[in-house]
Queue: 4 jobs
Job 1
Amino acid sequence: MNGVLSIVLWLVILAVGGLLGFVARKTYAEKKVQSAEERAKLIIDEAEKKVQEKRKEVELESKELLHNIRADFEKETKDRRAELLNMEKRLIQREENLDKKVEVMDKKEKELTEKLKELSGKEQKLHSMEEEYKVMLAEEKDRLQRVSGLTAEEAKKLLLARMEEDVKQEAGLMIKKIEEETKQEADKKAREILATAIQRCAVEHTVESTVSVVNLPNDEMKGRIIGREGRNIRALEMATGIDVIIDDTPEAVILSGFDPVKREVARIALTRLMEDGRIHPGRIEEIVEKVKKEMEVSIKEAGEQAVFEVGIRNMHPELIKMLGKLKYRTSYGQNVLDHLKEAAFIMGTMANELGLDAQLAKRIGMLHDIGKAVSHEVEGAHPKLGAEMAKKYGENELVINAIEGHHGEIAPISIYTVLSSAADAVSGARPGARRETLETYIKRLEKLEEIADSFKGVDKAYAIQAGREVRVIVEPTKITDAQATVLSREIKKKIEEGMEYPGQIKITVIRETRAIEYAK
């Protein structure tokens, strides 16, 4: 019984405990719900406050944006209104100007109408006067015919004949005056062009020589050069084609030969043999062959350098090589390659002054003496040889004609041929270009004039173009045209017999009669 009561008591206690737990949990849950509701309410209140604040901010921003838009609109409207007012003012001003112009045009139109009326009246008056003049002219013609006894046609022919004679005389005087002025102007322009070309392009000359001197370290070297029984010197002469002269000159050997390239090969080879110390026929042939190959390269480089300095393009390699050879060739003391460069610059300058092709002119100047590169090997004059070379290597007809005709051997086909003659003469004949002192140069000119003056009938004689030409003016009453021809030949013979000079000298005998009057 006690056990049952204990169980019942425990069940009651458990039930009461469970009920109390349930009540406590319910109370806790209600408090939690209430707390959550209060928190939610607070969150909602805060959200509403933020929404209100955000709404106020948006409203303020909207009002500010609206205010700005309204201000911009008012400003733009104000600017447009001002612009329209300005345009209106300009249009009104233009309209006023047009009104004024219309008034001026109306006024001018009225004036023109009045002037036309006046001109019409004057025209009618002139027409009536012309009719009267025709009547009077016809009466005057009849009167003149009766007085002179000539018809109108005869009088016209006589008058025209006299007028023709007067016009011819005046035309002759005018033509003569124009010719003199043109000649003076042409001479002046030619002098200016030549002076400009010479000033820009003058090049120093080098000394012409057919020998080269090689200095020796001592006189004992002469014996080594000669060799046993002369085998070394013979081997050197055979390998180079140059005469080796060993005489009493202390510490020097002379190399003699007309070919400057071969002479230079011999000089370089001998210098290297002395530096090397091994002098025997085999070594001589080896060194000479090596120097010849180096000389070919040097010649090519010299030609290329010359062409580059002058500014010429597209020239055949063989012609460039021939130009390089001319570095070792001289003419009357003037280095031929330097002469060609100078002539090219002079021709280019003259061509520029005359409005011609300067590149073509330089090309002709550079090639005009190219024949001298082979003139000592091939028979013939250097202009002819040069023209054949230029034709062989594809130069055009103008270049070929200028090369062949620069000494006047053939007729020129273009002005470039004449320019090549002038450039060649300027470069070769100017004082200082060739090996001739100023004193000798002046004496040569004086001698030329003296020879020309020694003949009877000669009035004056002038040596010009640095002694390349002598102009002889004779007295027309003492020398006839036929005698002038004979006189030029006699002067030529006397110059050839009594003088030494480079190149050729042109003798020009001038015989003319001048009739001069002065109208006061």
Job 2
Amino acid sequence: MQRGKKRLNELLLDYNLIKEQDVLRALDLQRKKGGQLATILIEENFVKEEDIVNCFCRYMDVPPLALHKFKGTEQVVKIIPEHVARHYRLLCVSQLGNMLTVAMSDPLNVLAIDDIKALTGYDVIPVVAALSDITKTIDRYYHHKEDAQKEKQSFDDLVKEVSEEDIEFVKAQDQIDIGEVIRSSSEAPIVKMIDALIAEALIKRASDIHIEPYEDRIRVRYRIDGALGEAASLPKKIQNAVTARLKIMSNLDITQRLVPQDGRFKVKLEEKEVDFRVSVLPISFGEKVVMRALDKANLSIGLEALGFLPQAMEGFQYAVTRPYGMILVTGPTGSGKSTTLYSVLNKLNTPDRNIITIEDPVEYQVAGITQVQVKPDIGLTFSAGLRSILRQNPDVLMVGEIRDFETGDIAIKAALTGALLLSTLHTNDAPGAVTRLIDMGIEPFLIASSVIAVAAQRLARRICPDCKEAYKIPQSVLDRLDLELDASKLTVYRGKGCDKCGKTGYRGRFALLEVMVVNDNIREMIMKRASSDEIKRYARKEQKMFTLRDTGITNFLNGKTTLEEVLRVTSKE
């Protein structure tokens, strides 16, 4: 088998199954919007799916695998994690000794094969299957429809209470009777359904609720432990009433349907108050509503309970106790930066301190802290607001994000004049924050003088304690990851999947933290405009800094998370 020597587009041309201009158009589309070439070719009707399957089969001299007849075991299928299977469009169909037989929509994808080897420790035998068959089979094995049906039952019962007589709906979007919508949104079935939706989301620990209108239905999804999953499908006829009910709860203008709106509301469930931040966005088939749950209980648990390793916590605690200077937390959206910063503010929130924040938007509303909401439309930007705040004699400042030179410059000068300033940046690691500030145009000597510490953060899913099981990891996997460990002496853990974790094997998340404390040597490197790689090498060697990958691997070996999760949220050093 000559695997890897030719690509799909070359094979299709060799076998006269496509025109060259169509190949060029497909490759151009792939460059613009990403995705697999095979998917683009099929969607654009350049070739039929069966042509692609036959093309691979002829080249590899193997018969196609009919997955619609496939009856395998979940244990074998799930040797390959779901996110890998969906990303590469493949499915593990059998395991014999150290060999996995894997059905692939693109069996010449060497990168996919190498990733499976690294993750599982098995050698891979690729076989050919149709893309549509693989997608359907992945859904069949990785999603438990019986459980999903049980989860949706409460919603189905509620939706049945809403009859045609209860609510009158106007099909034309520009002729909605606002009075009728307000009336219908206050009807008992709609109110009861929204309350049930929010209550179920909180019980399931969802961080976000997505209500998304489509042409023929409304899809409801929950984000649990960072992953979105479908929770319910509601009838299209109640769309306007549902949206109006949520807008009324959030003090938004129900007559405005063509502009985005932001609001918030508060609920109480089992003696616990939870704030919801609401975003309404006009889309093709109505208005999409996303509600983010902001649980204040997360702020009072303390930094120690966020899951930081002792090595990272020591450096971070040192920075927090300093009277002035700048502390930066970096990471992508949704990596827990705000929760970490608010936990710091909660710790510093004493009567003898004047704490002021400027945010976009205000995430948590905390008693004893002055919080300012950015409003660019009236000129209240981060930089303008920060200038005014400095005249309020603050002891501690939090700036939601340093986005430009002006905000960064004012923030650094505030840190130099006696305030402890906390803020966030979007960089991949802790040393990268220094070069990011320099790229904004801030002078290195100002950065060196003001920055106390930089922390890079990610959130990793925790193994479900109810279905946690031990297993032996192959030595070859450790070797590929350059881990000098003896697999025979290691016992590691994974989640088998149970009802309590929704069959995912994970329940809850914790923070991975990479902390770089700025000492005299690092200040000198900053002054000399050293690269982030040079600073990182120094911090690892001299400060014994644990990187995000180091922290992830340590938590994997401690049985807190899985190797797959560590590889998902951290990058190779």
Job 3
Amino acid sequence: MNAAVRPEAELPAIIKALYERFGESTFVRQHTAESMPTLWVGRDKVMAVLRYLRDEASPRYEMLLDLTAIDERMRVHREGQPASDFTVVYHPTSFSGNCDIRIKVALRMGDLSIPTAIPLWSSANWQERECWDLFGIVFTGHPNLTRILCPPTWKGHALRKDHPARATEMEPYRMSDEIQDREQEALRFRPEEWGLSRKSDTSEFMFLNFGPNHPAAHGVIRFALQLDGENVLDVVPDVGYHHRGAEKMAERQTWHTFIPYTDRIDYLGGVMNNLPYVMAVEKMAGIQVPERVKVIRVMLAEFFRICSHLLFYGTWAVDLGQLSPLFYCFVDREKAFNIIESICGARMHPGWFRIGGVAQDLPKGWDKLIREFVEYFPKRLTEYDKMVMANSVIRQRTRGVGVIDTAGAFDWAMTGPALRATGLEWDYRKNRPYSGYENFEFEVPVGVNGDCYDRAAVRVEEMRQSCRIIKQCLENMPEGPYKSDHPLATPPLKEKSRLDIETLINHFLGVSWGPVMDPTEVTMTIEATKGLNMYYMVNDGGIGSYRTRIRTPSFIHIQAIPFLSRGLMLADFTAVVATTDFVMADVDR
């Protein structure tokens, strides 16, 4: 394969290293909107390249942040890229070097197979299952390549371009007796199909369905537990009950009209879900947002971080047997939602960020409630410390439970508070600041033991730091417009539509279609409430996304629960589930 066009001196160091190790002809270089090093490599070499990145490169790429695929068959603009019907995309990331690389592998329709990456990263397990489920790509050597988001009886692969995107494109659904019997039989629990044995030489095991509707399951999820008495031998998470096809929806919506759908991913994160999406579109469009917009976005994002963590805090205490903190946390969460509603007009799903800015400027008197909150809330957190974090029962039930170290977190692709609880001081807002976070003073809380207690303690301290950031937004809010005047900002400022018929037409097209940009690809990642939330988008030059990949922390974290739970008591399992802090819409999308 032929390599890139730029002079050797301009090549990123990792590309130079790969050229030297494997030969320049092994790769094809691709340029993207965010300038992430992107290389195509043959299927026969990809595992060697990934192993080199993980073990030998300088810096080492410790984590496989994401693995996904693209159905290329209807894509028009692929200049300079190898012929491909389906493309497998790897996103290894380096925390020690604070950098990423994108590795792509081209596959043809008649031979959709590629070796599994599980021997390199345990986190590849579910990511590969998702690729098979939604695209039909076979990962040879995978121990359990089965459906994960779609039901076991599903026909076809939902993210292929020839799979219907709307119910109106399909025949009306009818539930016959035959279909009902087949669906019921598919629900039958057979331990062997889950990789679980029924007995050992000394005892018979009990199997417990924890969910799919259970007060401590934190959503519609099923855990099949293999128990020897009250000892947890193994756990098999069963997800997909909440799957709505958000990535498929992104392919049918325009750039602008997909914004409300992002709210429903981590539905506890509100506008924080809008943020990586709109920033990715802005990157592709070349839009620079005003400073006022950056600060407003940070302020609202941190309010939603507090809301999400308060929900975690209260329900975590309930799962451990302490009921009262939940009511206190919900009172404070309500105060935060009242502030959000006074600014955005809505509470949990405001859909308030826009391409190029925010929906409208801050209302008059916006600062009053916020000023009261930032004075009140830190004192409230101190009360919670005495009530919950210093409680001897809470400490006994969570310290030394569900332990994972930094290397294990890398292996399972755990990010956010779960990674920082292992002692690694790494936060996207500090290490790769976005939306002006480099202008704020705040600390990055870390744990020591990587157990359930530390994962909770990190989130508690993050609320204090979020309050600190909000106070700085309050005291240093810049003047200026609430939206960029870039012609691709969507929707455009309405004032310009009154000038003449041409600007009225442009306004109409901007509202109805949104931006139309040159074909490219972009990745945008933020420090969301539960970990790293990443949007990887392919733009084929249309009015919407050709491929939108939503990498959510909840989906990645749940597959680590068996690793965290084996050998614990059944009562400890609830503590592990609670401190994983997932949301099912964030898992299933």
Job 4
Amino acid sequence: MSFIDTSSKSTSSSYQKGNPLYIVMLTLVATLGGLLFGYDTAVVNGAEKSLVEFYIAKITAPANFEYAVKIITQYKIMMAVVLFLVFGIISGQIVKLLGKKKGLISGAIILGILLIWIIGFIAKAIPTDAGALKDSVDTIKGFVIASALIGCVIGGSVAGFISRALGRKNGLFIAAFAFFISAIGAWNPEGLNFFGTLPVYSFVIYRIIGGIGVGLASMISPMYIAEIAPADIRGKLVSFNQFAIIFGMLVIYFVNYFIAKQGNEQWLITDGWRLMFLSGAIPAGIFIVLLFFVPETPRFLVLNGQEDKALKVLNKIAGNKQAAIILEEIKATLHEANAPWLSYGFLVIFVGIMLSVFQQFVGINVVLYYAGNIFRNTGASTDSSLLQTIIVGAVNLAFTVVAILTVDKFGRKLLMIIGSIGMAISMFALGLTFFTGQTGENLTPLQGYAALAFMLIYTAAFAMSWGPVCWVLLSEIFPNSIRAAMSIAVAAQWIANWIVSLTFPMMNDNVWLTSQFNHGFSYWIYGVMGILSAVFVWKMVPETKGKTLESMEGLWLKKK
């Protein structure tokens, strides 16, 4: 069930007579959820190499075979549990999509097939030769680095329920506490290991908790802003959340760089990476404190029969003279909608899911999570690779601003297609740069600079298109009466994100692929996805610039 706001222009003008500074301050507090979203997802970029060296790489040594057996066995068990969680969520979305009867049958079939696969997966013998153990390192590495995304799937899936049952403000509190607990636990997974696992999987569990915070914030932060803001500046204020996500990534890139400068490589492997994760407790703690000073949104309060409290909030936002008028407008323009998700046919659902999937399959999170690894493959030192990562973050931030300023001028489709083509060309060129070197470490200085340039072009192309504009499209293509169906697209996005982050180390560090393509193979895959995403937007995605939601309803009904 969702609640649809069809506020009139009079509400917007009434807000403008209130206290705009107060509205901006509330927006800035809510965007801390977005900042922590970016901070938490990108912190692993600087710690990735150290984590692998400290916990995983040693399993290839013959003397550590007993440890290898434990880490691979527990990996299998945790992967089985995670897959059941993820596919359970998928089954739940299928039930919502197809209805109880068909949905439960389909979900049961999916989980049954998964169970058969898991039995074979767990029963598979643990490898003993060095080559097979190296592949196990790559697989476990992907699982550990991408572990937060498991939590993102969970958090994103329950965000709608929490925001309706507990409120937008309480949902942000839960997200903030999840960020704080994750930062402390990931800092010392040995000392705070209450799970009976190896320390590396204690780390994974704390990262999953942080991921739940990310998933919650990814939906509730922009929801809070949208329900506090006047209608005519709502788009700009909500856009600050995307800006905050990128800004959070840039901040942690700087933090990682300065932490890495405090010691040598060995110190970074044993202690430095811990401080990178611990640093997240600072913005999370600030977020928790500031949330005590912000109100619940008037719309949520009205929906729960707390009109007196809603009026008090509106008095602060809009002024005493207009608060009562706005309250009546909210009561008159908020109504429940609970239409079946297939009311407008399957096409709108398919387009939403594929927009989310392509946003991840073009490889952006390879850049966000593994940029340091990529630059080290060019021969850069750890310090240099982290500095280059800062440059990538700065470009990401700058071109996100470009998207915010141009999306209503040039339209959604044009920006998305241009971005897809730019990303495809950059990824093909980046793959070719690695392919032409004898090994990653033997790239010439010119090839190293070329790799950095292609990464920056790719990042700029994504930031001005698929980064923010995909979210704009997702918020516009779903008609009001099935707006809740957007949750299936959000879940698909986090699942696709997890798949890409999990598989990149398998492709990039695989012995055979490296010998054949020299780290270039994975980038060519993402280049192909860039081409496919451009064709998809051109052929399947409607232009929503300047169109009302009512006209979108008519469009999907015609295509039904």
